[in-house]
Amino acid sequence: MRETFVIALLSILVAGVAAQNHPNGYVGGSGSGQVIFFSSQGVATTVTVGTSTCYGLVMDAPNRVLLAANLDNLIYRVDPVTRAIIGSIPGVSSPYDLAIDCHGDLIVATSSAVLKIDASNTITTIASALSTIYGGMTIDPNTGDILVQSAAGTDPVLRVARDGSSVVTLGGGMDARYGMDYHIPTDSIYSGSCCGDFSPADAIYQLPMLSTTATIFLGSAAPPVGVYSLKADRSSAAVPRLVLGAFAPAASSRGPGGIFHIDVATKSVTTFSTLPPNASLYETEILYRRNVQTIRTATGQWAVGIKIPEDWAKVFVLAVSTTGIRPGVPLPGGRTAYLTPDTVTFLGLTTGLAPFLTGAAGQLDAGGEAVAKLNLTAIGKPANGLRLFFLALTLNPAAPGGIETVTDPTVLLVEGL
């Protein structure tokens, strides 16, 4: 009896630690340095980060710290638990949007360039002299390329190679000035426009990856109006949805600012949380998104970090493929594991990739984290250019098919050997 009580007590304590350290929800950037945190219940708390408008937000590579880009030329590091500023990255002029690439480096879109900032805060220019970048950036999980809006208004989206060796026009007719994201199930980029400053106003755009022209996914007749930031909330979702941060227009009849969900299949809109009158969100980010992130630790070596906060202490399996993420594998419960199985997948699930890949199965810790290790130094230069695709699953006998959660996939482009 005493042993049962101790085990139960420890479970409660560990659950408390996990919940405290990993507050799932959303965060939005606003004007005058305001950053608004939303709990998983939609309760909003506003903190001040810098002195200027916050257009760029992203969780860092380990998925523990929020990075917030302000137009006062600083990128702030913010602890999502204490909501205190714990550092900053100087030297970036007018950072508009942020992303984390396939090596865990921070990618920054400025008014005319795409920059990379590594773990030592060294800034490298990937592409410059681009045509008036104005926000809107995401990473293509198929290739690791950077997707960025080329100019204000409905100008083309550009595909920028991670090393800057090429810049390719994907398509036009899309306004992604205030953020865009890649949506894996539809193989499309989505973005939202705002505020009637061009026509059509307040639309949500969709640009399929094989298309040259964007179309209106959801027009201004449907709420919410004043769409700014948009994210694809796809982790472990049977019904994939978009997450919108909304601007509060001057005319109150047009709707409040806040966070809204849109079901991709039905285009139905639901309200997650609204803000007081005239409070707006210029950018949104998903706090502690369930993901796998590759982070370079040395030449030819990477940490493959897994973070699924709500699945602390559950058994996990890391799957790897050299083929791609589409079409993926259908799973019970209407879900899809976006990874294309191949020989490497089989070897990885049977420890056949050791010693190159270790720690690919085990138990998540109290924070819902685990780290596998990838070491390709023994292969050397022939591995350069190889793309490895990862995703993680957690197991639960009570879940459909015994699978509790499926993470977003991520791609690692092997280089530098």
Structural class: mainly beta
Low-pLDDT ranges: 1-20
Proportion in β-strands:
35-45%
CATH architecture of the largest domain: 6 Propeller
- Rg estimate, integer Å: 21 Å
Structure description:
- The protein has helices at 2-21, 343-349, and strands spanning 25-29, 34-38, 44-48, 54-59, 66-70, 74-78, 85-89, 97-100, 106-109, 114-117, 123-127, 137-139, 146-149, 157-160, 167-171, 180-183, 188-192, 204-208, 215-218, 227-233, 241-246, 258-263, 269-274, 283-287, 291-298, 301-307, 315-321, 329-331, 335-337, 357-358, 361-363, 369-375, 387-395, 403-406, 410-413.
- It has 417 residues and is mainly beta.
- The protein folds into two domains: 24-287, 6 Propeller (Neuraminidase), CATH 2.120.10; 291-413, Immunoglobulin-like (Sandwich), CATH 2.60.40.
- Strands 27, 31, 33, 34 and 35 form a five-stranded antiparallel sheet that branches. A four-stranded antiparallel sheet has the order 3-2-1-24, with no helix packed on it. Strands 4-5-6-7 form a four-stranded antiparallel sheet, with no helix packed on it.
- A hairpin with a 6-residue loop joins strand 6 and strand 7 (85-89).
- The protein is globular, with a radius of gyration of 21 Å.
